[in-house]
């Protein structure tokens, strides 16, 4: 997924970028509001991480401008302004989320995951084809070489989440949040057990599931498999 990071603090911007790079996001960045507005309007982004106090064009003006022109990227505001009216103003101006500084990178990551899940819920009818596998979110089916693979609910959700994010290495915490939400938890061993089961089912029909484990980091989809 592609992210535009607009933050005037060079140190904070660098820290966020390093974290996002590590998670597999493609990141463009700037510390200038005017340049950020131009980038947002000339490129397609999945997410925009937006500071409010920016030189040349402030964050709220930038946000209103891109929404007025139909830009549908998910926007999360980063701001030291913590009053309720500030958050309300940001959300009413078109933001999808509002994160108050200081914050942990883990919290920012969780907000991005949550917004990704919202987007997936709005795209449940789409079909995804990777290698010789076809996943249909509308009827919850996985086919390989024209044959259905019978999956459990959690097996399907794990594969669906990985297939929806083919450019990223997803750690067990991200997968658990996407599959069972924040009030339950799937352990790393449970996730691996589910994936091992799917691999066996795929192997039974002569196929190899295009999901690999990057040791110490998480799972990713190998589209060339």
TrEMBL record:
Limits of the Response regulatory domain: 2-116
Keyword annotations from UniProtKB, A to Z: DNA-binding, Phosphoprotein, Transcription, Transcription regulation, Two-component regulatory system
Domain OmpR/PhoB-type residues, every copy: 125-223
SMART domains the record matches: REC, Trans_reg_C
Positions where 4-aspartylphosphate occurs in the chain: 51
Gene3D superfamilies listed in its UniProt record: 3.40.50.2300, Winged helix-like DNA-binding domain superfamily/Winged helix DNA-binding domain
SUPFAM superfamilies recorded: CheY-like
Protein origin, superkingdom: Bacteria
Keyword Manganese found: no
UniProt-listed InterPro entries: CheY-like_superfamily (IPR011006), OmpR/PhoB-type_DNA-bd (IPR001867), Sig_transdc_resp-reg_receiver (IPR001789), WalR-like (IPR039420), WH-like_DNA-bd_sf (IPR036388)
The UniProt record lists the keyword Manganese: no
DNA-binding region range list: 125-223
Protein name as it appears in the record: Response regulator transcription factor
């Amino acid at each position: 997924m592609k992210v535009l990071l607009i933050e005037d603090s060079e140190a904070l911007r660098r820290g966020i970028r390093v974290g996002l790079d590590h998670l597999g996001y493609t990141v463009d960045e700037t510390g200038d509001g005017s340049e950020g507005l131009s980038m947002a309007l000339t490129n397609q982004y999945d997410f925009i991480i937006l500071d409010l106090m920016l030189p040349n064009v402030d964050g709220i003006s930038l946000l209103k401008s891109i929404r007025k022109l139909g830009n549908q990227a998910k926007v999360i505001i980063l701001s030291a302004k913590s009053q309720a009216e500030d958050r309300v103003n940001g959300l009413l101006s078109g933001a999808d989320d509002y994160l108050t500084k200081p914050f942990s990178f883990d919290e920012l990551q969780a907000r991005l995951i949550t917004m990704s899940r919202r987007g997936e819920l709005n795209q449940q009818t789409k079909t995804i084809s990777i290698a010789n596998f076809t996943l249909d979110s509308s009827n919850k089916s996985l086919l390989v070489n024209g044959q259905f693979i019978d999956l459990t609910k959690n097996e399907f959700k794990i594969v669906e989440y990985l297939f929806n994010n083919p450019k990223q290495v997803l750690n067990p915490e991200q997968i658990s949040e996407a599959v069972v939400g924040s009030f339950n938890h799937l352990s790393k061993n449970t996730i691996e057990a589910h994936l091992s089961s799917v691999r066996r089912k795929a192997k039974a029909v002569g196929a190899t599931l295009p999901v690999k484990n990057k040791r110490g980091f998480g799972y990713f989809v190998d589209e060339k498999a």
